[in-house]
Design a protein that fits this description.
alpha/beta; Rossmann fold; 13 helices; 15% strand
Length: 405
């Protein structure tokens, strides 16, 4: 009988050690690297055509996900977000074959729902009852929703500057929310201190400190290929904070090639950051293998305000392996592109998604992108989560006042 999941073990990409995937694991005990789920792809007998006949959610790829069976799945209907052509915006940027993978359609209105769905499902399956994490906002909101759905307790550390709506999402779903006057790194220290000496039923689910959030995020790559008729685009542009989605997309595409479901070179991966917080860009430009913490990190694209990503080595390796690049854009430009995408395509992008628009303009002007290339942008969340990024300046009239058009 074919197993529901082809999960086999966990790999350490730094020291090469393998670990048991069927007990709770954090970082590699030998070198403190994030661990990656490894699958026995030779055991996967499902075809692409059979996958297409399954329900339109991310669990359609269950052979390539770490959850052992459907009875362990915690779901709010996540997956299969639209891959939308953006021809008017593309023409404006000089890349007519522009597509937007719009993650705003997910539960909790951001791509974080993918990682939360798979991460919470796996945590519960492995016996965890209490979870803890720092967040810049959207991840905490997503994990709070799925933890509530699973009947698990969640402790969330969040910077005061995070979007207010994400605080409300945590509160309404019953998370134990703690606010900290600082950055996500400070929230991480708060969570670490809270868990010090705690019983073993706590599970630290901070970014890449457990192996399964990335497995949910990789479904973005699986969906893009399926939505393109099981082929890959030329370029994928991704806003990068912790970088889990970029690592996950690279992992997904590599697995699809090994399965024989797609062919050809992998898309060039572009990591986009803000000039106010660009440790990956700085490391890439310097040819470094890892990044250094960014001092004084600050950007309106709050989701990518991560001074030092735990998975920075994996992000940089994915960019290099695909012939990609890393770009930093300034806040004024990305906020202007929130409005541009809205006017030209009717899409209210989040600031992080708008940063990819700015990056494409820059890369096209530099000649790094060709006019005939197929480019996929990741809009990682709904613009309505960030109402303060848009200034509403319109005339007000009385109830009976004239409206001249």
């Amino acid at each position: 009988m074919t197993r529901w999941s082809a999960l086999d073990h966990l790999d350490c990409p730094r020291c090469g050690a393998t670990h048991d995937a069927f007990v709770r694991q954090g970082l590699c005990p030998g070198c403190d690297s994030p661990l990656l789920a490894a699958y026995d792809l030779s055991s996967v007998t499902v075809t692409r055509e059979e996958v297409a006949g399954r329900p339109p959610d991310l669990w359609r790829y269950h052979e390539l996900l770490p959850v052992a069976g459907p009875e362990h799945v915690v779901t709010l209907g996540e997956g299969m977000t639209p891959l939308l052509p953006a021809p008017v915006l593309g023409a404006e940027l000089g890349v007519p074959r522009l597509l937007v993978k719009d993650e705003s359609a997910l539960p909790t209105a951001s791509f974080k729902a993918r990682g939360a769905a798979v991460g919470v499902s796996r945590a519960r399956e492995l016996g965890a009852s209490r979870l803890a994490m720092p967040t810049n906002g959207n991840a905490g909101a997503a994990w709070a929703a799925y933890a509530a759905r699973a009947g698990l307790h969640l402790l969330v550390g969040m910077p005061l500057g995070a979007p207010t709506i994400t605080r409300a999402e945590c509160v309404v779903t019953g998370a134990d929310l703690r606010l900290v006057d600082g950055l996500i790194s400070d929230a991480g220290r708060l969570v670490t201190a809270a868990l010090a000496g705690s019983p073993d039923d706590w599970f630290d689910v901070a970014t890449l400190k457990e192996p399964y959030r990335i497995e949910g995020k990789k479904t973005m790559g699986l969906e893009i290929c399926e939505q393109l008729g099981w082929r890959m685009p030329d370029v994928i542009v991704y806003p990068t904070g912790g970088g889990v989605g970029l690592i996950g997309i690279h992992k997904a595409l590599t697995e699809l090639v090994e399965l024989g479901w797609v062919e050809g070179p992998l898309p060039r991966l572009v990591s986009v950051q803000s000039t106010g917080c660009a440790p990956i860009v700085r490391a890439f430009e310097a040819g470094e293998r890892s990044s250094q913490p960014w001092e004084g990190a600050m950007t309106a694209a709050f989701g990518i305000n991560v001074p030092k990503a735990l998975g920075d080595v994996l992000v940089l390796e994915a960019i290099k392996a695909t012939g990609g690049t890393a770009v930093a854009v300034d806040d004024d430009a990305l906020l202007a592109d929130v409005g541009l995408a809205g006017r030209l395509e009717g899409m209210f992008l989040c600031p992080e998604g708008a940063a990819t628009v700015t990056a494409v303009r820059r890369l096209r002007e530099q000649g790094w992108l060709g006019a005939d290339e197929e480019v996929v942008l990741l809009n990682t969340g709904a613009g309505v989560i960030y109402p303060d990024t848009v200034t509403v300046d319109v005339p007000t009239v009385g109830r009976d006042g004239p409206i001249r058009v």
